[in-house]
F-box domain-containing protein (Adineta steineri), 237 residues
Amino acid sequence: MNLECLANEILLDLFEYFKIEDLFHTFYNVNYRFNILLVKNFHSYHLDFQSVSKSNLHVICTKYLPLIRNKIISLRFSDDDNTPVQSKYIPIYFPSFAQLSHLRALSFYCVNSSNLMERLIIEWHQLPYLTNLSIINCNFTTKTDFHTIINSIWSLDHLVYCHLNGLDGTWPNFIAPDVTSLSIQYLFYEHGSMDWDVLLKLLKNTPYLRSLQTHIIDYSEPEKELSSYTTLTLTRF
């Protein structure tokens, strides 16, 4: 089949199934029409760097990223065994997250960075469409305390889904926010815990929370700490 015979709408749907490096390698500079589709008409770029080699990361970020920066809707960074030291390239290729003006989902996996969190608590407030935030098994060596981070997350106006797992590489007790989020509906705090007092404050300051997954600790009996992993499904009236 000659792909050039397909309607633009079909081609744009087809682009959804390609990784970005394969998409541009296959279609970019084939002809003017494909370039316009990729750079002007396609608005659903998902950048997942979890399994991207260093060489491919460089190609994507130097050749393609400048063309589509404001059309990226999801972005995932990883610093695991398959993509070591990827975090050191974040400030090089992404000097400002505010440039990702249509980003909806932002994820960090096993990222170790000394100053990334200081950037995030400022710059993610400049992402007007951000609805999903995941920070998983990350060790941020930061001067910013955990309470400030939580308050910053709860101040994101449109955040719906929040997944915090192994933040700072430890199992810290959750600290309830001092600010109210009218948007967060789903909270996953798996490698951590909270007691009942913190839970009550969390529910008060997250009035539209529909689902919570975390460890609940019961300190009601001296010298008998009870901890259980709990999924709470909340019905609001």
